[in-house]
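Fold tokens
===========
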Amino acid sequence: MFKYKPIFIVLLIFAVSSVFIYKYRRQIPSPEIIVENIIPAPTLIKEDGLPNKHLIKTAFVPQAPEKKWDQPWQDACEESALLTVHYYYEAQNPDISTMISDYQTIFDLENDFAWSHDVTLTQMATLSAQLWGYQSEIIENPTILDFKQYLAKDIPIIIPANGKTLFKENTHFKNGGPWYHNLVILGYDDDREQFTVHDVGTQFGANFHYSYATLMDSIHDFPPSLKKEDINQGIPRALVLIK
């Protein structure tokens, strides 16, 4: 009988331990699964009837889709801005080959008109009407409120700008920024006092943020002298295309 005693003791210890562990585990509460809900800041309607922020989402159209910066790509910001708005209205997310084909269509029409690489807002309005049938409105001496009113209605805005001024907040430009540049305003945020744009001139230009002050200060149409260096003599204007 004594030869079975060690086995009996081991089994007894195991049984007692099992009962203790079972009771102990029952006292431990089940782990609580915590799900963190991140609630975005609500959009507020201000006294002027406009939301405090708004953003239009659309495809980014690089000025040089194949990263070639010789002509005509070096001065293709105007064409890029037009295509950005056109693709938005057409709900397109084009591949590079489609972009290049559409760029070429614009270049061909500009050549038919015997225009230079740099075109004014009036010429851009003509291109959009000829190619896609858009109506257009040129806003003289635009204000921040003007821009917000269009953006809140999901209407993008093309602006011509002094790239040297934009360089203060966008150091991705080379050589201190271009004298004459075009980009598309897609949104605004009153809390941050910033516009959101597709700045087609750099690879980091998608949904780029410029302060209200810098962007408004940069706006100038192509100067009457037809010299880029005189960009600050150009009248502040903005172009709106209506489908």
